[in-house]
Amino acid sequence: MTEPRSTFPHGTILGYPRIGRRRELKRAVEAYWAGTADAETLEQTAAGLRRATRERLAGLGLGRDDSSIPESFSFYDQVHDAAVTVGALPERFAALRDADRAIGIDAYFTAARGAGDDAPLEMTKWFDTNYHFLVPEIGPETVFSLSSDRFARQVAEAKADGFTVRPVIVGPVTLLALAKATDASPQGFDPLSRLDDLLPVYAELLSALRAAGAEWVQLDEPALVSESLPADAVVLADAAARAYAALGVRGDRPAILVAAGYAQLSPEAWTALAAAPIEAIAIDLTRGAVPDAVPGLDRKTLVGGVVDGRNVWRGDLDAAWERLQALSAVGASEISAGTSTSLQHVPHDVADESALDPRLASWLAFADQKVAQVVTLATGLVEGREAIAEPLAEASAALADRRSAPGVRDGAVRERAAVLDAGDFERGDYDARVAAQDAELALPVLPTTTIGSFPQTGDIRRARARHGRGELGADEYQRFLRDEIARVVTLQEDIGLDVLVHGEAERNDMVQYFAENLDGFAVTENGWVQSYGSRATRPSILWGDVSRPTAITVAWSTFAQSLTDKPMKGMLTGPVTILAWSFVRDDQPLGETANQVALALRDEIADLEGAGIRVIQVDEPALRELLPLKAADQPAYLEWSVGSFRLATAGAAPATQVHTHLCYSEFDVVIDAIAALDADVTSIEAARSRGEVIGDIRASGFAAGIGPGVYDIHSPRVPSVGEITDLLDRTVGELSLRRVWVNPDCGLKTRGYDETVASLRNLVEATGLVRERVGVSL
Question: Which residues have a catalytic role annotated?
Fold first, then answer.
């Protein structure tokens, strides 16, 4: 095995937030897309953010010259970065390559967002997180080549500033395991079969990184922990063994750290990596146990991921220290303290949250606080436990204070949950509900609707900000929102949609809006976390028992319904999604917390019904997202997640049509669970994946109403009437016409009005054409 160029540091993190403390990257990227900033300005902003990150991490205690600082920047997402670097650009974008076959920034963004008739890359969730990545398209015809020098340039940039950084790149096994076959691929083609063709490009990349000044490189291989991928653990472990045997013997490479977070490494992968000629392995000890010793570890550093990279609780630092001590008995040559995953999943800094209750803030650790925790543990590894006794004791005191604080446990909430029985989760016969809803709503064949939100314009955001600063009074703000709702209702009637929405102008975010109106939650000012590309969310903090003090949505829904004779949806976010897109308490089972949220939503549904709302949508886009990566853990998750949705909705009357919505996930794994939700209508992503889910729906025998999306809202493209018609034709050709709905893939919040109106008009026109073709009397 090649000797390491340097020893591995005693503490490190696996990645850091990259959008900027005030979303500077978002603004720069979107200005570039809009044509108001040029490429040079974009690159300067990005370089400034990278420099600020390196200085910040050094200031928090990571070393400037020991590779403990990861270089984990991305303009869009890390999987896309790796795919572009190795030349895996779909053929439809091949003409965008530079004259020397390099893939520049325009081609990079165009593949992510689409252009004209060329659809963007499909998007899905990164393992069991709310982060989205672009799915590479790889086939037998894909020509791998080193097509971008961006990773090497960033290493050289850091070197010029006095930093020796560790570039972070998605590893070859995970890149191929997450890829989909190109349309030109033969049936049954597996992108992982191209591993041997890909490895020489990775070897060339490693050589370039070494030449640029990298002493270590981090190759992320979370595919090796998952049991939810097409390839099983044995196949993935064999691929890892082959990959790192080939890369490890190179003499012109940096030392290699293979990082496998998000769950426990499979036994097969653990054995393969231990035997491989690499220098270090990073494992997740927050979602996995200390592994058994296997041959080869005596020549490696083990990075124990004992600081949770995915939640914001300060946690038990003393327990983290004990796990590191247990890891030291496994037989590795060195032990290092680390985060379980990249810190891209948490906000920057608790100190940015001046409005948080100080007591709550003392229980929290955002990215900067987690870096400090890693530095503390690293100090202990060098100097002994006594050297860090004070910060360990402080963390334990904060944990004890959290347990005893008022509101963490609410007797009334717990008493209500304790008396639930099976009848509280059952709604009644589906066919009887369909008959009652048909009589109540009288909808046409192929009813058209949208998912919920309409574009959040600059005017809406400015009005909300002015109201928050006290510059716009409550009455004036209410009038502004009512005018906006009235405009959206009139627009939908003009377009010709059948079931309308009020547009959600009053909502800053589909989860935060509810968090602001439920007890047991806190919200942040600057707690931004990247969701995909330039999009970020501010996850709320669910710290205590949850209850609903008063109705949340009823006034807005009833006002909107008063403006039209068409059915108006009441719009709620489901319990699983509220949990998935929040930072949730870790002191009780998730299922208990989900039921508390479900009971609050059940009360809201009852109030909506009482106000005359007959269509109520309870969105659960995160149902697949939280599915555990380990098969043994999935049945329990599906039981409580489905149960919480049913608890929220089972009180609805038969004539009330309950919708739900799911998006951007592999649904074949959870199709039975989707059916078990017992919603009357389910809308689901299908446009960006070009209708792949339709076959799964047909094969499953799914019997309820279904709306496979026909308009991809994560791209600025306006789908043509012909494109939508083709998707609808496929849908009605495979599914029962009587249960098909027509809708976009997701909400329209992030889109502009021009493209939204054009797309929805095309959707309605295409629906009319298909209705004529199949005959509305069927």
Answer: 714
